[in-house]
Amino acid sequence: xxxxxxxxxxxxxxxxxxxxxxxxxxxxxxxxxxxxxxxxxxxxxxxxxxxxxxxxxxxxxxxxxxxxxxxxxxxxxxxxxxxxxxxxxxxxxxxxxxxxxxxxxxxxxxxxxxxxxxxxxxxxxxxxxxxxxxxxxxxxxxxxxxxxxxxxxxxxxxxxxxxxxxxxxxxxxxxxxxxxxxxxxxxxxxxxxxxxxxxxxxxxxxxxxxxxxxxxxxxxxxxxxxxxxxxxxx
Length: 234
Description:
Helix content: over 70%
Number of domains: 1
Order of helices and strands: HHHHHHHHH
Largest sheet: none
Number of strands: 0
Structural class: mainly alpha
Number of helices: 9
Radius of gyration: 19 Å
Low-confidence stretches: 1-12
């Protein structure tokens, strides 16, 4: 996600601005459904099917977010003028990014393994461990951008903006398509994971609580570090 707005005020069709808005919408959708998933996980034993349903649903918006941020990554490191001028994300977020991507893949791959493989001895341990690590990383990432995302999305829909960025309907369509793809996959695959969960012993609330506690500490530590590194970058 991009750190500043208006840097291309005179270029209405900047690919940086278009990428920023696409990423912001995808991030907002993911944020909402991740919160829903966390609330469901707190009562996992009674809501296992719902947990898997939302997890599969999240896959669609996650793919959009990965492609959007991956596009910026590639354009920056292939020395695209627009993306080089805006610069890379905060150094702290860059250092955390590989671990966030890795744990995200582990959370979802192990989740799918549990949903369709029913091997709790392997996938259950991987899922619980990766969730405990993933939550703090997501929390730091969310904290860094949560105040910027509403303004970015609002600017894309405001009629009073002086510098509209073309492609608003396309950006919205891409994100809606990702969300619908996740919903359809969760519904179509429902018969494969809705039954046969009685024998599984998944203890995610424990790792969930641990992850949340670590997340609180991580965000508190990150707040001053982000401020210092942002000032240094300016």
